[in-house]
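Is this the right way to post structure tokens for a design question? Let me know if I should format differently. Anyway, here goes:
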């Protein structure tokens, strides 16, 4: 896929005046390959996505994950992939049905940034939320929160019926803080996925400026590694090995025995030790 296959058509559509003001516009990008300007495409979507929801479908093994996920993230849409053995029509219809459900527009959470260490999605980032969907926000508070009993933040959105802005004050108390590992890891995993996508986009967007790319790549990879190790989540830069704390004796354990294996020609091969299940 060449540059003009995605950048020019998207630019023409996004810069075109919407036919019905105050109604969301839906755009679907179907791609079976890669482009050499992913950063430009994603930036175009991010800068022109107001009132528009852009979803992306990658077709086959040649589709670029960075392009598909980057466009959907910037366009507040849905990212999905279809393999060679799947029905593309079913995937497209499913995506269209999901993305055209009634929307709550401009959803964002305003919070005192001095309390934040990490957040997903980013604090203040506006999003669409389909009616019936769960809007999850992960806030990782720093040590300054230890000296407070709680704090107040504001959830704002645009009412889908009368198109008026709504503000809901939310009081977060220290006793409400969640310390469960599974919840913390889920949020950390989503942050890592976002950073990995940003790193891939930077690789293509600054291919002609290696110094800038190396600086961005180093920063993103450092954050990925730090978050992955801290919360014990997998990433492109980390891996984990499961280690059993059971002591293994040098001699055979009681639940082991020698088994003779027969191949089709009935010739016996070497014995091996197998643990009975």
């Amino acid at each position: 896929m060449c540059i003009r296959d995605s950048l020019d058509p998207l630019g023409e559509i996004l810069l075109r005046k919407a036919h019905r003001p105050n109604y969301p516009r839906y755009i679907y990008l179907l791609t079976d390959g890669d482009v050499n300007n992913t950063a430009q495409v994603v930036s175009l979507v991010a800068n022109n996505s107001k009132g528009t929801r852009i979803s992306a479908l990658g077709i086959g093994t040649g589709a670029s994950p960075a392009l598909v996920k980057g466009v959907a993230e910037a366009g507040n849409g849905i990212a999905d992939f279809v393999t060679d053995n799947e029905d593309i029509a079913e995937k497209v219809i499913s995506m269209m049905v999901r993305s055209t459900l009634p929307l709550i527009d401009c959803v964002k959470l305003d919070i005192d940034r001095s309390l934040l260490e990490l957040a997903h999605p980013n604090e203040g980032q506006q999003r669409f939320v389909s009616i019936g969907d769960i809007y999850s926000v992960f806030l990782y508070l720093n040590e300054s929160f230890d000296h407070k009993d709680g704090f107040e933040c504001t959830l704002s959105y645009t009412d889908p019926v009368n198109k008026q802005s709504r503000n809901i004050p939310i009081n977060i108390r220290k006793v409400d803080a969640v310390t469960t590992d599974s919840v913390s890891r889920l949020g950390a995993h989503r942050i890592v996925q976002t950073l990995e996508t940003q790193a891939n986009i930077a690789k293509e967007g600054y291919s002609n400026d290696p110094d800038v790319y190396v600086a961005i790549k180093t920063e993103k990879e450092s954050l990925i590694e730090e978050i992955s190790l801290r919360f014990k989540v997998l990433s492109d830069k980390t891996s984990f090995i499961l280690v059993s704390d059971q002591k293994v004796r040098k001699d055979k354990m009681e639940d082991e025995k020698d088994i003779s294996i027969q191949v089709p020609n009935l010739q016996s091969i070497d014995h091996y030790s197998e643990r009975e299940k």
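Format looks fine. Someone answered above. Worth noting: Residues 259-277 have pLDDT under 50 and may be disordered. The CA atoms of residues 17 and 275 lie 69 Å apart.
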